[in-house]
Structure formats: C-alpha cells, structure tokens
Amino acid sequence: MDKAKLNEGMKKYTMVIALLFVAMFFTWQTGGKLLLPQNVSNLIAQNAYVFVLATGMLLCILTGGNIDLSVGSVVCFVGAVGAKLMESMGVNPVIAILIMLVIGTLIGAWQGFWIAFVRVPPFIVTLAGMLIFRGLSNVVLNGQTESITSGGFVKIFGGGANCYIPDIFGIEGFNLTSMLIGIITCVIYIAIQVAGRRNRIRKGYATDSLKSMIVKTIIICAVVLAFTYKISMYRGIPTALIWVVIVVLIYGYITSKTTTGRYFYAVGGNEKATKLSGINTDKVYFLAYCNMGLLAALAGMLTIARMTSAQPTYGQNYEMDAIGACFIGGASAYGGIGTVPGVIVGAVLMGVINLGMSIMGVDANYQRVVKGLVLLGAVIFDVLNKKSNK
C-alpha cells in the first residue's frame, strides 16, 4: 500500500521534482548566480507573459488537445494598437487599456466562432490568425518602434526600475513589506487548508491523511517564504507578479471549483458523452478561445510595459512558450487533463532553463534545442503514461 502511494505521489509531482533538480543543476553550473535576488526577480518579470498565456492555453488544450498558434501575433497586435492609442493619438491610458482588452476578446471571439460553430480545425484558424495579426501589427506600426512614455501604464504593468511594491518601512537593502506579504500569504494558505479539510471531513468526502497535508503545507509555505525573502533582498514584489497571481487565482478557482471549469475537462474527456448529457460543447469551445484572446491582450500589455515600447517583432514564439509550459506542466496532449498549478510549474521550469542557460552563456540556438527536447520529453511521458494506464 505504501509503495503504491509512493508511486502515485511520484507520478503526481513528477514535474515539481524535475523543477527542483533542474534548479539545483543550474545553481551548481552558474556558481549560485541563478539564485541571486535580482535573477529570481527577473525570472518573474521576464516570464510574466508565459504564466498568463499558458493559463489561457490550458483551457484550449483541455477541450481536446487543441492549441492557439495566434497568441504571439495577438500579443503584438494588441500591444501595437495600445501604443498607438496612448502615444500617437493621446488617448488616456485607462481608456486604451479597456480598448486593448476588448480587442483581444473580440479576436478570441472571432476565432472561437469558426472553431466552435463552423467546426474549422483550431490549428487552421489560429495559424491563419497568426499570419493575419502579425501582418496587421506591421501595418499599425508602419514597421517601426513606438515608444511608451506613459509612466503610469508602465508602472502598473511591470516595466522599468520602479515597478515594484514600495516598502512602507523604508528599510534600505530589504523590502520588509514584500516579506510581510509572503508571511501573510502563508498564514492565509494554512487557514484555507485547515478549513477545507474540516469541511470535507464534515461532508464525508475522501481526504488526504493529516500527515500528508502537513508535509505539503510546510513545503509550499517554505517555497513561498524563500521566494519572497529573495525578491525582498532586491527591490521587492514586481507589479507584474501581481497580475500573474490574479490570473492564477481566478483561473485556478474556475477550473477546480466551478461547473464551467468542469465542462472544459468533460469536453476533453469525451465530447460526445458530454454533448449527450445536455452540455453545449460549442459554447465551451467558444469560451475557451474568447478567454485566450482576453489573456493575450493582458500579455500584450505586460510585454509593451516591460519593453517600454511596441515593435512588429514582439510576441514571436510566445505561443510555443505557452504550449510548452502547459505540456511540461502535466496537461495531456489528448485533452481533459491539466491544472493551473501544474501549468505554473511548467512555466517556472521553462523560465529556469532559459535563465540558467543565459547566465551560462549558452548559444541561443542550443537553448532552442534544449527547450524542444524538454517539450518532446514531456509529451512522450504523457503518451507512455496513457498507454501504461490502459
């Protein structure tokens, strides 16, 4: 029994274990530079778009292994429109933000219509979108760079040196406010775990052992505290992280606690059975791609804020980073399996690999080779796991 539980636990936390070993390897190879406070902070700031896009991509993948190849181009197009609105046309940044979100959602709805109601394969629709919106990005920007001078926009979406939560205590060299936020986060998490366990026991639901819950809680809190301690030694919590946390919390709740979230898993598990049970599967597909467009717009804002400019080349290969993070994080290539926390682990793993190789000075071409091999390995693991279960 214990051996069976151990095997089950190993399968469940394979990517977490892999992330730990990869982080240890690059820490060793870089002489500890990977874990310098500035590099830990940069890991979040530079990969914020991956966390956001991968969360949206997960919903598409859940519906049956479908993907969205257009997200990188949509990121670029929405960012280009936003930059033009704010800089060339003098539109208020708040209005520009709303317009960008609406444009992203409309793009998602347009692609979702063909996929959900006309049943054009997602690969074809989003491939066309990739070409269309990359071309429109060049048209909007006239092939040139549009600089972002709106300090408020840049600060809110995490670009520049001052885009961190300020320390109200004013301690030099350590952001105590950020550290306290990490401690409060752990306290809230512990309270939620205890309350949730009591609620499940009261209702007669199956629960993990108390020992298992305590170990899991200790590990997660230790990671959170170690992370916040590191970034507090640099400048504190970057504002980009706030957007990532908001997206993760919202979509983590939707996918695990709501009926709508269960529909995505049901469609990916068996679409015909789901349709026969009375669920409108067309609407599920449509919602997945509408949502992807919305999150692509948010990723576009994070991108142009970090770069403080918009360029026709932004967003290239973003779709591959998002797809890779999903599959590495445990999403099934067949659909119906995957979680938001798993996707975040996958995104962090990709970020650690990118950052570690960059610090080591590995050629960019070899970095692509490694990322490709990691993605292939994750999918092969999923396929073999499916066969062994059968």
Quick recap of the structure?
The chain is mostly helical. The protein has helices at 2-12, 14-29, 37-62, 71-88, 93-116, 122-141, 151-156, 176-203, 210-232, 239-257, 259-269, 271-276, 281-307, 318-328, 340-360, 364-389; strands at 146-147, 309-310. Keywords: Cell inner membrane, Cell membrane, Membrane, Sugar transport, Transmembrane, Transmembrane helix, Transport.
Overall geometry: globular
The helix-strand sequence is: HHHHHHEHHHHHHHEHHH
Query: Structural class of the helices, strands and pairings?
Result: mainly alpha
Distance between the termini: 21 Å
Mean pLDDT: 89
Helical fraction: over 70%
Task: Please tell me about this protein's structure.
The chain is built from 16 helices and two strands. A two-stranded antiparallel sheet has the order 1-2. The mean pLDDT is 89. It has a domain at 164-237. The protein is globular. The chain is mainly α and 390 residues long. It has helices spanning 2-12, 14-29, 37-62, 71-88, 93-116, 122-141, 151-156, 176-203, 210-232, 239-257, 259-269, 271-276, 281-307, 318-328, 340-360, 364-389, and strands at residues 146-147, 309-310. It starts with a helix and ends with a helix.
Strand and helix layout:
Layout: H1 2-12, H2 14-29, H3 37-62, H4 71-88, H5 93-116, H6 122-141, E1 146-147, H7 151-156, H8 176-203, H9 210-232, H10 239-257, H11 259-269, H12 271-276, H13 281-307, E2 309-310, H14 318-328, H15 340-360, H16 364-389
Antiparallel strand pairs: 1-2
Helix pairs in contact: 2-15, 3-9, 3-10, 3-11, 3-13, 3-14, 3-15, 4-5, 4-6, 4-13, 5-6, 5-13, 8-9, 10-11, 11-13, 14-15, 14-16, 15-16
